[in-house]
Amino acid sequence: MGDGSLPADKYRYYIEQDYAYLLDFSRCLGIAASKAHKLDNMSTLSSLMNGCLSYERGILRNHMIELGLIQTEMDLIEMAPTNHAYTRHMLYVAYSGSVGENLSTLLPCMWTYQLIGEKLWREKHEGLSRYYLEWIEGYSSGEYKVLVEKYREMIDSMANEGGLLERCLMEKHFRTSSRYEYMFWNMAYSMEKWSI
Fold first, then answer.
1. Tens digits of per-residue pLDDT, 61-119?
2. Which of 18, 68, 109, 191 is spaced 20 to 30 Å from 181 by Cα?
3. Would the pTM count as exceeding 0.70?
4. Buried b or exposed e, range 8-38, using 16+ CB within 10 angstroms
5. Cβ contacts of residue 55 below 8 Å, gap of 6+?
6. What is d(CA 164, CA 116) in angstroms, rounded to the nearest whole number?
């Protein structure tokens, strides 16, 4: 993406899968807001859910138009195996775990996108297509950095308030999601399909 050599069909596939992923990511934030005990946490989590639905899906919406993707078709996209497994992991933790555990499954996505966006911004090449440049700008922006910092602050606070078991579970979920993040990129590049 950074040097513009990513084939458009791979990027299109990524956008389709990321769209489906973000719907479940947003659901996890809604579950977190419903479980929050403190009013300020409930408000922040609701705001983060809205931010995901508007900011990140806004980035995707522009790309969908340029790539000729139609909203009604996007709503019917079948998740690839890795995407399905990753989002089931997130939803399972959201429903069965604490708010801190839930957020720890979501942070790797946010944080790695920020780091990748900032790296690609520093190394970007001239003549990038508009949608690659918009993706890089969106995830390297100051606005996005503030969003990630909100997640990190809230997670750090919950880890400090929680006991040893809570912190161990948060770390475990963070690690699992980090692995899935790596697998998600490979899934998108290989345009992974169900084998049966």
1. 777 777 788 777 888 889 999 999 999 999 999 999 999 999 999 999 999 999 999 99
2. 68
3. yes
4. eeebbbbbbbbbbbbebbbbbbbbbbebbee
5. 138, 143, 144, 147
6. 31
The pair of structure tokens assigned to 10 is: 């791979």
Nearest to 162 by CA among 91, 92, 93, 99: 99
Six token digits for residue 102: 């839930």
Catalytic residue among 16, 56, 101, 109: 109
Of 66, 137, 166, 181, catalytic: 181
28 in active site? no
* Second-level CATH architecture of 8-190: Up-down Bundle (1.20)
Q: Burial level of 5, CB count in 10 A (0-12/13-18/19+)?
A: exposed
